[in-house]
Design goal:
It is a single chain. This protein has 16 helices and two strands. It is mainly α. The protein has two domains: 52 residues; 230 residues, no CATH class. It has a two-stranded antiparallel ribbon.
């Protein structure tokens, strides 16, 4: 029998094996590259889809057209200026754009019957409603935590000591003028709703408005209570105003409700969204830990700075 394992045949076997190995390695390498490219494409597509989702959520949370509340504004702005809550000269120096100048009419005219907050004027409204909430006589201020437990130190909060656009210091403006007269039932309504409305820059409800946003929501709630709005309508408006002041926060919350609870933002109960579990600084951070950072969102935490 012919010896199969001759030197010549052994060399051929080695070459065949080597060729097979090289082919295997090349195919494996190509396959690995294909899978890697597919993975990268999926990642890019996922990032693109996430960016679109963020844009869609932002359009729902803080639409460009804004949110409008029908309010009998009347002489509210004039009375606020008269009470020293707003220094009109400081305001004029602070708001210089043409759009801002139009908003100043809320402090000088009496024919305003709506408030519309949008991405461009959110700064004006947080300041103006802040001044109103701070200056107006309200049981939330006089009978609440700030007016009782901290009565002697009421000027030490961000919402009082931080107000610099008035004629008087914030501590002197605190609940100093009756600008929005309310019945006892309306006062109770404001307190009831305020106790359930939080904001993501702080850990307290609007019933303890120790920051500018808390005071601003208090001013809004008082206006709405005077005009006969229901609790549910007040929660809806408070959520809308919060959403323009803390847009990235509420985009995150909208993402949470959509992905974790399969609930679109428009169907979320405003009272629940405003609760300590979601809208307080601590509650929001717990939600943030669950969802992480949504690709396409801008980083930055909530702030009390006006």
């Amino acid at each position: 029998m012919r010896n199969f394992f001759s030197a010549k045949n052994m060399v051929m076997l080695v070459w065949i094996g080597a060729a097979f190995a090289v082919g295997y390695i090349v195919n494996y390498y190509n396959l690995f590259n294909i899978n890697e490219r597919i993975g990268l494409e999926k990642e890019v597509l996922s990032s693109a889809n996430s960016q679109t989702t963020v844009n869609d959520l932002m359009a729902l949370v803080a639409p460009h057209e804004g949110y409008t509340v029908k309010i009998s504004w009347g002489d509210t702005g004039k009375e606020l200026v008269s009470a020293g809550g707003i220094d009109l000269q400081k305001y004029t120096q602070n708001y210089t754009s043409e759009k801002d100048k139009q908003l100043l009419a809320y402090l000088t005219e009496s024919n305003m019957d709506t408030i519309t907050i949008n991405r461009e004027n959110a700064y004006f409204w947080v300041n103006t409603l802040w001044a109103l909430g701070l200056t107006d006589q309200s049981n939330v201020l006089t009978d609440g935590v700030m007016g009782t437990e901290y009565k002697n130190d009421v000027g030490g909060f961000a919402s009082t000591g931080g107000w610099t656009l008035g004629v008087k210091p914030g501590k002197d403006l605190f609940a100093s003028s009756e600008i929005i007269p309310l019945t006892s039932e309306q006062e109770e309504q404001v307190m009831r709703v305020a106790e359930n409305v939080y904001r993501p820059c702080c850990g307290n409800s609007v019933a303890f408005p120790d920051c500018n946003h808390g005071m601003a929501i208090l001013g809004l709630l008082s206006l709405m209570a005077r005009d006969g709005y229901s609790d549910e309508e007040m929660y809806e408006a408070a959520l809308a105003f919060n959403s323009y002041w803390f847009t990235s926060t509420y985009v995150d919350l909208a993402y949470y409700f959509q992905t974790k609870e399969n609930t679109s933002w428009g169907k979320v109960d405003p009272k629940r969204a405003l609760s300590a579990d979601f809208s307080s600084a601590m509650g929001y951070q717990k939600i943030k830990q669950q969802i992480g950072t949504i690709p396409g969102t801008q980083t930055g935490g909530a702030s009390c700075g006006a």
